[in-house]
Structure formats: structure tokens, C-alpha cells
Amino acid sequence: MSRIYEALQKAESERKFERREPEFEIPDEPAAMTTTLAEPEDPVFSTPRFTDIPVVTEPHPEPPARRMVGDSLDLSRIPERPWALSLPQLPALQERGPAVEQFRSLRSRIFELRDMSPLKTILVSSGMPQEGKSFISTNLALSLARHKNSKVLLIDGDMRRYTLHQILGCESHPGLADYLAGKADLMEVMQRPEVSQAAAAGNNPILPNLTFIAGGNGGDKAADLSGSPRFGELLRLAAPHFDWIIVDSSPVLPVSDAVNLARWCDGVLLVARGGVTKFPVAQRAQSELKASKILGFVLNAVQETPEIGGYYGYDGYDATAQ
Questions:
Q1: pLDDT band with cut points at 50, 70 and 90 for residue 315
Q2: Whole-angstrom distance between the N-terminal and C-terminal Cα of the chain?
Q3: How many Cβ atoms sit within 10 Å of the Cβ of residue 23?
Q4: What number of other Cβ atoms are within 10 A of residue 2's Cβ?
């Protein structure tokens, strides 16, 4: 009996031992999980990466300097230089006639666009050369200056073939290229006609309202200069002091200068020459400037003018500039 009882006790002990074995394996898995989850507590992960950068609270040095330059922009300090206007190329100076009326009509359209959205800086360009963009930009600037004595800044942005100084009969240096290259400041490249000379130019009160920046000589560096952020800085500094800023630029298709300058302008006015500009050229020019706001096309050198000549002979017609 004792042997049977000992055998039963041994068997019972073995069964209890077998039932306990899984109980020792269960805690192993949570222990392994605890180790894995503890890895993010490593100091490399828990230490903030931005606590050792106190310079982010320091003001950037450039904006204060720019504000000082903007505050020092005094229009009364703009140099006065002799101008010899090419009157045949400036019909906007006329008191009456179909040509001056066309520019007044263009001016009215621009005012309508400004009523719909902010508009101050307008870039004038064309698809190809010799389409009349410089003629349009100069006369548009003069027409805008005749409206309620508006202050207008005219910029020759064609730093390759700058011609606006020839129309105005003034010096071409220093100009925009010199400013963008850092060789001159903004006041040095601006110019106005002499007061006595402006008073003698047909008694027109518009020339004192017109400020001009010539093209300078960009040469082969014109593409790089046109992409300089200094052009945007120029517009930012000048904008508070002028009612309108007109920028004449290079043609769009041969070079990329106009596309670079247009990024900083509120809108783009494209010029097409009647009987010369092909429709595909106008389409390509518009496509090149798709990132900018296209205000519209101006059809230049149209042979058949509107039949309004008789209207100017009416005795009661008042052609005084408004």
C-alpha cells in the first residue's frame, strides 16, 4: 500500500508541475514588450531640438535696414536733368486728336481694372521686337500723369535695347541695370526734367509728375539682373510715393527678361502691331506670361482709325485733358 500511495503522490506532483510551466512563460512576453516600448524614452528622442536656438527670437537684420531706406526716399531729392522730348512720338501730349483720345480710352480701361482689383504696377511687353511696346508704355505713362496730377514712375526695363531715354531726350545712365547690379542706389537712378524746361514744354503740367528710370546697360547680364530680387525691392520702396508705375520690358519670346520682371508687377499689358503681329505669336506671348495677370492686348499702328474726325470739328467739343 505504501508503494502505491507513494506512486500516486509522485504522479500528482508531476501533474501539478506540468500545470505550472505555462504560468512561468506568460510574464516573459510582457517583459519583452515593456523593453520595446521603453526605447522611445532614450534621451536622444526625448530631448527637444529647438531649445538650443535662441537666435529665432532675434529680429532679422535686413528688414530694419530696408525700412530705413524706404523712409529716406524723398521725391524732392530726385535729380533734375535736361530733357529734349521727341514730340512726334508723344501724341499723349496733344490736347486733342484721335491719337490722344485712344490713350485716354486706354487709361479709362485701366481705371476700370483697378476698380476690380488692386493695380498700380503695370508691365508693358510684346511678343517680338518692333511692335511698339516702348511707344505705348511712354504715352500711357504721360496719359496717366495728366489725370488729376497723378504721380507716375516710368521704368525702362529693357536693359538690352533701352530706348525710352531717346523718346524723352534724356540721359540713359545710371539706370535700372546699375541699380540691380548694386552700383547705384534708387535716388541716383531716378530723374526728372528741369522745372524751367517742363514749364516751357507746351505749358503741360504733366512733366513734373513724371519720374523716369532709364535702362542702363545690362548687356549680356540682363537676364540675371532681371531675376534679381532688388527689382521687387525697388517697386516696394517706390510704390507708396507714386500713383502708377509703368515698366517697359524686353519682348517675351526672344528673351526671358520680361517674365522675370512680371513676377513683381500687378498686371501685364501686351502690345500687338496691326498687320505685323501674327496670331500664333500673340498666343505664345500670352502663354509665356501665364503665371502673371494679363490685363489685355493693345493693338498698335492700326491703319484704319475710328471715324471720329468730324467730331473734333464740333464747336462745343472740349478737349482739355482730364
A1: very low
A2: 134
A3: 8
A4: 6
pLDDT digit string (tens) for 133-152?
A: 999 999 999 999 999 889 99
Within 8 A by CB and 6+ apart from 269, the residues are 122, 123, 124, 125, 136, 140, 295, 296, 297, 298
Measure the CA–CA gap between 161 and 165, rounded to whole angstroms: 11
Size (the chain), residues: 322
pLDDT digits (tens, 9 = 90+) for 147-162: 988 999 999 999 999 9
Per-residue pLDDT at 208:
86
In sequence order, the 6+-apart residues with CB closer than 8 A to the CB of 247 are: 121, 122, 123, 124, 137, 155, 157, 261, 265
Among residues 122, 114, 153, which one has the least CA distance to residue 292?
122
Q: Is 80 helix (H, G, I), strand (E, B) or coil?
A: strand
Let me know the angle formed at the C-alpha of 294 by 292 and 300, rounded to the nearest 5 degrees: 135
Take residue 96 and report the three cell numbers written for it: 486733342
Residues 6+ apart with CB under 8 A from 294: 267, 268, 270, 286
pLDDT, tens digit, 9 for 90 and up, residues 51-66: 343 333 344 343 333 3
Look up cell 472740349; give the residue: 318
- State the residue for C-alpha cell 471720329: 308
Helices (H), the chain: 2-25, 28-37, 43-46, 62-71, 98-116, 133-145, 164-168, 176-180, 186-189, 195-200, 222-226, 230-238, 257-262, 279-288
Closest CA to 298 of 138, 162, 133: 133
C-alpha span between 211 and 193 (Å, rounded)? 8
Cell representation of residue 86: 521727341
